[in-house]
Design brief:
Mean pLDDT: 88
Low-confidence stretches: none
Distance between the termini: 22 Å
Number of helices: 3
Shape: flat
Length: about 70
């Protein structure tokens, strides 16, 4: 069966360190080889764009937006 593969990933916060960011980007490169569509969310940008919300609320909002995209 020919199925499309859509992948949504988040990149660690910059304060989590360069090593985690490096591992994340290496993993994204590998995932991209098999994905038909890859969407990368950068945690720093998510939080900066929604700085009036806390981390938990920002992630909940992002999760809900993804669910709406998938279900539409």
């Amino acid at each position: 069966i020919d199925k499309k593969i859509f992948v949504f990933v988040t990149v660690p916060f910059s304060f989590e360190g360069r090593k985690r960011l490096s591992i994340a980007y290496q993993s994204i490169e590998k995932i991209a080889e098999d994905a038909d569509k890859l969407v990368v969310f950068k945690n720093d940008e998510l939080l900066n764009n929604n700085n009036e919300l806390g981390v938990r609320d920002t992630f909940n909002m992002t999760s809900n937006a993804l669910l709406r995209m998938i279900n539409s």
